[in-house]
Amino acid sequence: NNNNNDNNSSSHIVMEDDGLSKITTTMLIYGPGDSYVGGIKNGLYEGWGTRQMPDGRMYVGEWKAGLRHGCGRYHSLGGTLQCEWQDDHPVGKSDSPNGYC
């Protein structure tokens, strides 16, 4: 889930503007080792992005409305899970050998 707040530093570039909503590529720094780099739409993670947590966990992949959704890779101290995600949960077949969904 998206932890955007007003106390983080950020920079962004408008990547797409359809006149109705904007998708920006943003770097958000929440604290040491705690960041997000990727798309933002309506204040939520959207499109392709990387979320790094201070404990070393990381998700690299697709986001929809602030949730992991689509192709993604989750890294933790226990290993790596490569799979499709839906509404922030892993679904279907996982761990493809070539590193792609």
TrEMBL record:
The keyword Repeat appears for this protein: yes
InterPro entries, A to Z: MORN (IPR003409)
Top-level taxon of the source organism: Eukaryota
Keyword Cell membrane belongs to the record: no
Pfam families in the cross-refs: MORN
Coiled coil: none
UniProt cross-references to PANTHER family, sorted A to Z: MORN REPEAT-CONTAINING PROTEIN 1, PHOSPHATIDYLINOSITOL-4-PHOSPHATE 5-KINASE RELATED
The protein's name in its UniProt record: MORN repeat-containing protein 5
